[in-house]
């Protein structure tokens, strides 16, 4: 019996060596090799090897996919599916990464790796937010997916990272509004600019874009001769961001016209100011 076990071990070792020996071959050739004679673990480990040593992470997907195909109900198949999602993400194949991650969530909703699958899905949206000028649909999808990670898995190791990325994505949306608002402001379209800066103050007030939005509101209202609103915007800016260079700029512009940063009149900004004084804003 001991001799039989020894022989079996030698066969398994030989199979593993054969798998790893193929790592030096071209990717196209390795994908045509027959894997039926290898165990799920051996194929899975070949996928891991490809992922760690190959400059093309997508090549590892082939082996993880074969584990699923040949051993569909095994523990290795479950591991292989989450690794497919990870490999696709490493390869920047974000749509495929989302597909694999969603399949894992649908198939193994109660598994301990479901939180990671959900995080990978959110990350596949987040990592496509590369500049302010692009369509913001991906940003909204990123926010929704990150929120799901935070709400569904609040005690997971991924929740904290999701919160940070959520804040950054939220700031990204505010930055888009600021970009458009500045465009209108430079061209003298003051009402259109005010509408954009108002969105930042009312909907994205916790972002880093708020101080500049209040400065630009001060500028735009001064340009329109709406001094009450300009003073109120300056007052809010001074109350919350007095050390900001944006406040000093707003103060100088108001002072040059004999005005002070104080709440005046009755507008949407005075409502915001009252909330500030009552401690219900920011």
Automatic annotation (TrEMBL):
Localization per record: Cell outer membrane
Main location: membrane
Domain of life: Bacteria
Domain Outer membrane lipoprotein BamD-like: 39-233
Membrane topology, from the record: Lipid-anchor
Pfam families found in the cross-reference section: YfiO (PF13525)
Assigned protein family: Belongs to the BamD family.
General function of this protein: Part of the outer membrane protein assembly complex, which is involved in assembly and insertion of beta-barrel proteins into the outer membrane.
The protein's name in its UniProt record: Outer membrane protein assembly factor BamD
Protein species of origin: Paracoccus cavernae
